[in-house]
Amino acid sequence: MKLLIVDDHPVMRFGVRQLVTQRWPDAVIGEASCLAQALEQVRAAEWELAVLDLSMPDTSGLEGLVRLHRAAPLTRLLVLSMHDEAAYAARALQLGAAGYLTKEHATTELVAAIERVRSGQRYISSDLAARLADLLSGEAPARAPHETLSAQEYRVLLLIAAGHGASEIAEIMHLSVKTVGTYRSRIIDKTGLANTAEMARYCSEHGLVDRGG
């Protein structure tokens, strides 16, 4: 197995490495402490699986996941995150993750998660499974405004909240500025957030940016 660990915390990378090598002594393991390093690694070699933290020094939220998935679509991505909201996990799966595991349960569930993802299936932390089932079945409490957005609209919202302008977002997402403007208008219509400041404040209050990855 070839596995890439993407996390900016050395202790976390060490812990993941230890768990993996105990189960797969012959595993080839690479490490990256930021998204830029991870992108270099996946462009230089093929990796079967990447264990990915969402909070990187050079990206925020789910954008790193999207960019890594685009750069290496055949690499299975297992998110290892501090974020324990079911809706956030659902977004990660929607945007390309093959699994979502909270760091709280890494010690007990990481090996099982890797085995499941390697087999071509999806994995989600046991503590999130019931809440996600309710969310997908429509039995969860009323959705927050950001949960009504499409995947692309959600990405635009997070990028706006992170301080990116329309031209930057267009470049990051490989869209036209006009399309970004369309997504922004839809965000305003669906959430009632009228400007950049309101979007940034909303994302901060709801833990959507610069909050555990």
TrEMBL record:
GO biological process, one term: phosphorelay signal transduction system
Domain called HTH luxR-type: residue spans: 142-207
Location of 4-aspartylphosphate modifications: 53
Protein transport as UniProt keyword: no
Gene Ontology molecular function, alphabetical: DNA binding
Alphabetical list of InterPro entries matching this protein: CheY-like_superfamily (IPR011006), NreC/VraR/RcsB-like_REC (IPR058245), Sig_transdc_resp-reg_C-effctor (IPR016032), Sig_transdc_resp-reg_receiver (IPR001789), Tscrpt_reg_LuxR_C (IPR000792), WalR-like (IPR039420)
Protein name: Two component transcriptional regulator, LuxR family
Species this chain originates from: Thauera aminoaromatica
Phylogenetic lineage: Bacteria, Pseudomonadati, Pseudomonadota, Betaproteobacteria, Rhodocyclales
